[in-house]
Design brief:
Elements: E1 21-30, E2 40-50, E3 55-59, H1 66-74, E4 81-86, E5 89-90, H2 96-106, E6 107-110, H3 122-133, H4 139-149, H5 164-176, E7 182-186, H6 194-209, E8 215-218, H7 222-225, E9 230-235, E10 238-244, H8 248-262
Parallel strand pairs: 3-8, 3-9, 6-7, 7-8
Antiparallel strand pairs: 1-2, 1-4, 4-5, 9-10
Helix pairs in contact: 3-5, 5-6
Bound molecules: adenosine-5'-triphosphate.
Length: 263
């Protein structure tokens, strides 16, 4: 097991001009397996890029395909057509073993339900992806992540001894500890109160600004989207709009327009 980090050191920034994530002509059709099935087009020919060291939020009406997009980008689900590149590596042609390794080493995922292992301490949960890969933590980076989540004094506690917001900050640290090409977050604040949400979103924001990380987050909340550099709006499985330097009010106005169109 990796040892706990020291305090007081600074994180390390990755630099590259390749987008963190790029997808071309991505489609996902559910229920196309056998004749007579009802088919649902969850993704409809989506081409999208996520630059490094940026925080992007994805918003859209319920059922518009946001989670499907995140799962296909992260290699948790297979698109029906199209290609996904993680840091320049095309993922559809990878063997199952290589895809598993890529997901473990180069992609972080934060779920609404935290998904921490209950028998491990906070620290053991955070370094689990490194342990599975047989890697040691970059001490300076691990210190910056631990200081960033503000839970150095709780690292020996099990998830059941932590609040929901604290557990989600541990989950964010676990997603970041490998210095992945990208962290995907699917409704990371959906189960949290507003104070805990602000703690989690503030940490994700600082992970981009101070640690050079890349975050792509699905959210229903305009206040959460306002932490991002850019918001992509989704409807009917397609990207239908974009807002840079969002504020909660501008996001809300766009969402109202979208919901009028969709209803
Ligand atoms: N396994 C599945 N089988 C069949 N249809 C599915 C499956 N998963 C998702 N869908 C459908 O695909 C569409 C997109 O779903 P998705 O969960 O990606 O939307 P979403 O925008 O994330 O929705 P929400 O905001 O409600 O979470 C929906 O019509 C949904 O019913």
């Amino acid at each position: 097991m990796c040892r706990e980090p020291r305090s007081g050191t600074v994180g390390i920034v990755q630099k590259s001009t390749t987008p963190a994530v790029h997808a071309t002509s991505l489609s996902k059709v559910y229920g196309a397996g056998s004749p007579g099935d009802v088919t649902v087009v969850a993704l409809d020919n989506v081409t999208v890029s996520f630059p490094r060291e940026r925080f992007t939020a994805i918003m859209g009406p319920s059922g518009s395909g946001k989670s499907t997009l995140l799962h296909c980008l992260a290699g948790l689900d297979k698109p029906t057509n199209g290609q996904v590149f993680i840091g320049g590596t095309e993922t559809s042609s990878l063997s199952d073993g290589r895809l598993t390794a890529l997901r473990r080493d180069r992609v972080g995922f934060v779920f609404q339900a935290f998904n921490l292992l209950p028998t491990l301490t906070a620290w053991e949960n955070i370094v689990l992806p490194l342990d599975l890969a047989g890697r040691r933590p970059d001490q300076a980076f691990a210190d910056a992540v631990i200081d960033g989540i503000g839970l150095r004094h709780r690292l020996g506690h099990k998830p059941s001894q932590l609040s929901g917001g604290q557990q989600q900050r541990v989950a964010c640290a676990r997603a970041l500890i490998t210095k992945p090409d990208v962290v995907f977050a699917d409704e990371p604040t959906g189960a949290l109160d507003s104070k805990s949400s602000a703690d989690v979103l503030g940490f994700l924001r600082r992970s981009v600004d101070e640690l050079g990380q890349t975050v792509v987050m699905v959210t229903h909340e305009p206040t959460a989207a306002a932490y991002a550099d850019r918001v992509l709006f989704f409807a009917d499985g397609r990207v239908v709009g974009e807002l840079t330097d969002p504020t909660a009010d501008r996001v809300l106005d766009r969402m109202k327009d979208l919901e009028k169109v969709v209803v």
